[in-house]
Amino acid sequence: PQEPTGSLLDGLDPDQRAAAATVDGPLLIVAGPGTGKTRTLTHRLAHLVAEHGVDPEHCLAITFTRRACEELRERLAGLVPEQAPRITVQTFHGLGLNILRERPDRAGLGRTFAVADDAQRLAVLRDLVSDEREARRCLETVSQAKRIRAARFAAAAAGESAAEDGFTPEMVDLLERYTKTLHGRNLVDFDDLVALPVTLLAEHADLREHYRDRFRRICVDEYQDVDELQYRLLRLLTPAGGHLCAIGDPDQAIYRFRGADVGFFLRFRRDFPTAREVQLTRNYRSSKVIVAAAVAAVAPSTLVPDRELHAMRALPAAERVGLHAAADQDAEARFVVDTIEELLGGSSFHSRDSGRVTSDGFEHGLSFDDIAVLYRTDAQARPIAEALSREGLPFQKRSHNRIADHAGVQTVLRHLTGSAADEPLPLAVRRAAQRAIDELDGDLFASSDNRVYAEQLGAIREAVDLLTPLATAHADDPRGFHGELTLGAEVDTWDPRADRISLLTLHAAKGLEFPVVFLVGCAEGLLPLRWPGAHLRSTVDDLAAEEAEERRLFFVGISRARSHLYLSHPLRRTRAGQTSEVRPSSFLSALGDDLIERLNRPGASRSRSRTQQLRLL
Ligand code: ATP
Ligand code: MG
């Protein structure tokens, strides 16, 4: 039995409350990092179902990662335990899969269709094009063509003039044959999960009406990162003047490389002329210095020039942002580890429990899960992970790779297909791994390279670790297992509840927050990242857009920090055996000296006062 509580809007500030209490019609919430956008979204939904009598079945919340979905579901369950399980919380792909599972016949699919992985897609393409290399190249082009074609089809069906897709007749022909073969094998690909529902809803008014009636209330978090196809799906699901709530921050748009376009956020007001708009300006996450650093960092390319962002957390001794220049990436990693040990009070072995209250009076000591190390590309994690391992500091790494694309997973899955359907999945996975190892042992006679063998064996073992939790969760449901495998876009071994230091790419850190953040690799070429030869392939406009996006990533990184932020950069970098000097990131120059404290003395620890300030966390 629950105590009667106040309104679900009680925990919100006046602006957040205004946003959450706007229950009808289109609504745009534009706000900077840490202003409680995600919190407002959850309270708004809870308020709708608990205090406005909205049927939870009519509610749909969309966000970008499955992890973010889980968190939303959890938060909703905390607020409205009765109704929460009946609210649909999905990624775009998850939603699309739901629609296709409900209506496979409308898409010309069998009831038992599965989601193809890249190996299965490649098998289809191999039959359609001349050689292996061409088939591999087509994996990406076909995928892109499919998304664009479906989006343009929907735009045309809605009577909007959209740009020509510009595909050659050969490309269109290949796409059609590829899709037909795929569907003929009772498979869909990842792109189909959104492209098919978009095409179906654009084509069939009855389906459109059905889903508009079903999802009368839609909330989308991180709306700045929708791509054209996702945008089309939302438009199809929302009648004119419908209850679509879009939440986001244009300055945190970081998925341009995947086809996301912040333009869709910016045209919301045009798409929904009756939309109400609410801005949130209070940042509840970060210290004053960190808020100021974030705002300064993004200012040169901000898409929200009149942005207001006020720091609400009163930290008595606001510490400046630490900036460290390290000799190379290993030295940078040592700086991170040394500082972490210092923060943790010199001991390598703090657990969450011992960390909170310590003998020397830490009232709110740090634990491992309070700390994150962020970087631009996955490869940068390596020196950090090695340095942490050497010190015995527990960490977990989150990367953006799909489980299904992991080399070992592909091997194991190849041996899993055709396995007895009545066998429990976890067992089937172990058997498949064993068969993969047997095959590897057999190959050993053909190859004498032990290193390759060890690597492949390691990959298979990793695959078992990755697949087992999923297999256990879907013990009797191979279809669900395969579906989720393809959907579970990331190898997400990252567990928000684990008491470990987090190693995250800037992309993976989106939406999260940590008391202590290290942002490593603030160097030209790393952040902003420059791919070799990019200046040859890209137009000047493209390069400028890329640079702006890199800067937004810098902004996202800085704004993850609650109390302590450390920026660092290596002065030398070794690539392919070549060592070269690298300049500090040009982005750093946006941060004035009033915000920065240089921590350049190698090995020197910070002043006592600085360590003492930690107790004020
Ligand atoms: P991002 O842009 O990074 O996704 P966000 O705008 O979604 O950020 P939230 O993650 O919802 O922000 O909130 C940031 C932090 O501020 C969270 O710790 C949240 O609990 C806290 N917070 C939000 N609103 C309030 C409030 N009204 N009172 C106290 N704390 C709040
Ligand atoms: Mg958020």
- Shape type: globular
Percentage of residues in strands:
5-15%
Overall pLDDT metric: 86
Low-pLDDT ranges: 347-363, 603-617
- Number of DSSP helical runs: 23
> What fold name goes in the CATH topology slot of the largest domain?
Rossmann fold
CATH superfamily of the largest domain: P-loop containing nucleotide triphosphate hydrolases
The CATH architecture term of the largest domain is: 3-Layer(aba) Sandwich
Query: What's the number of extended β-strand segments?
Result: 19
Binding site for ATP: 31-38
Domain UvrD-like helicase C-terminal: 288-563
GO molecular function: 3'-5' DNA helicase activity; ATP binding; ATP hydrolysis activity; DNA binding
Protein name: DNA 3'-5' helicase
Descriptive terms for the model:
alpha/beta, six-stranded parallel sheet, seven-stranded parallel sheet, 4 domains, binds magnesium ion, single chain, globular, Rossmann fold, binds adenosine-5'-triphosphate, disordered C terminus
Short description:
By secondary structure, the chain is of the alpha/beta class. It contains 23 helices and 19 strands.
Protein model, in words:
By secondary structure, this protein is an alpha/beta fold. The chain folds into 4 domains: 165 residues, Rossmann fold; 90 residues, no CATH class; 237 residues, Rossmann fold (3-Layer(aba) Sandwich), CATH 3.40.50; 85 residues, no CATH class. The protein has 23 helices and 19 strands. The strands form 5 sheets. It has a 7-stranded parallel sheet with strand order 13-14-12-15-16-11-19. Strands 3-2-6-7-1-8 form a 6-stranded parallel sheet. Helix 10 links the parallel strand 6 and strand 7. Helix 4 packs across helix 8. The longest helix is centred in the N-terminal third of the chain and has 26 residues. The two termini are 35 Å apart. The C terminus is likely disordered. Adenosine-5'-triphosphate binds next to helix 2. GO terms for molecular function: 3'-5' DNA helicase activity; ATP binding; ATP hydrolysis activity; DNA binding. One of its GO terms (cellular component) is cytosol. This is DNA 3'-5' helicase.
